[in-house]
Amino acid sequence: MYLIRMRPEQLQDAVSRNVPVLLPAGVVEYHGPHLPIGTDFLIANAVCEEVERRCECVLGPSLPLGPTMSWAAGPEDGEIDFEPEAFYHYVREALKRIAMMGFGRIYVLQHHQGDEGLQCLCLRRAAMELVRDTGTAWGPGYGRKDEHDWPNPAMFRRIIVAHIDSYSQYPSPEAERIPIGHGGRGETQLIMAALPETVRMAALETLAERPRWLRDADDARADEGRRWIEFCVRGWVEELTRADEG
Description:
Rossmann fold; alpha/beta
């Protein structure tokens, strides 16, 4: 189900059954001449769309813009460095309004720079400030009560910011992790799998010298990208299904 396509009675039914909401988040930035500038967002969105096809969830409006710090290029190459404070306020308002609809489980699937990246920090700040607003509205000392006596026992789990493989089960601590990087082998093969028509590997030859993060791009394989997307999708489906059952 896509939130913006739902009628009011469908929305109210989803809320009554505690159906989770999933929002894809990424950025628009230069990933080399061979990949689309929306690579980060497109990867997050591809995972979210496949998850929506496999389990009951509401796919919320996307968050395709975020802070990039113009790390890889400038606007002439498609870079959109969204101002962090403006991004934070937009996200906070978006999450607040989705929560006001009554949804009890809201997930943001974020793909850009990892846990310590500026975008992720802005997303987490917005989520936690909404949690704080919820708690303080109950008055001082609510934490002394049994958690099940709170108006919303799942307050601290209501809005979760996670990554494409956050819920995937690696076979061991030593097992290979999903390769990411910036425009290199990892992201190139994920885009090859999700949107092959947007990739033009020959464009790499136009570079006089490749930055270090593009040096392994030629090693990308579409079948490996499909394997990793499937790995991530399975983890998210299991999480949303487990949460629904729990």
